Structures are given as structure tokens and as C-alpha cells.
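Q: Given only this backbone (87 positions), what sequence would you predict?
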């Protein structure tokens, strides 16, 4: 099994079958996966991403009303990662 997981950031308040299908296929292929709830907050998500050191981070935007939260989070993670030299 691959040690660095593939992490999805999603709104976990509703069923997300797309992520469920992707996780099933990735797990079958030997990858670890994790899902982080968008509502956990930027600092919590960044801390978890640092700990996971993921191969890929995917964003699942199932509600257009949350697009600005995802954009804000993505920019926050990119800027903070560069500042803290997270690879």
C-alpha cells in the first residue's frame, strides 16, 4: 500500500457518492485515502495535510454555494505551504 494518502476535501454534510467511488477504486489499487471536512476550518485542514503529506489533494465541490470557501482554502494552503516550506 502507498504510504502517502490521497486526500479529498469535501463538504461532509451530505452524501458524496463521487468521492465514495473514487476512494473505492483507489483503495483497490493500493492507495490510502482520507476525507477532510471543509467545515473543519483552514488551520485544522492545513495541520492535517502537513501530517498526512499527501500525494494529491482533491477538492469535491458539490454545492456551488461553497465555491468561495474552497477557493479561500486552496489559496490559504498554497501560501502557507510555501511559507512553511511544506512539499
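A: Predicted residues:
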Amino acid at each position: 500500500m502507498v504510504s502517502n494518502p490521497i486526500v479529498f476535501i469535501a463538504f461532509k454534510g451530505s452524501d458524496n457518492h463521487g468521492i465514495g467511488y473514487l476512494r473505492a477504486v483507489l483503495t483497490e489499487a493500493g492507495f490510502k485515502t482520507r476525507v477532510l471536512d471543509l467545515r473543519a476550518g483552514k488551520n485544522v485542514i492545513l495541520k492535517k495535510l502537513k501530517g498526512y503529506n499527501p500525494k494529491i489533494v482533491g477538492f469535491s465541490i458539490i454545492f456551488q454555494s461553497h465555491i468561495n470557501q474552497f477557493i479561500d482554502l486552496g489559496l490559504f494552503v498554497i501560501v502557507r505551504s510555501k511559507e512553511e516550506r511544506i512539499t
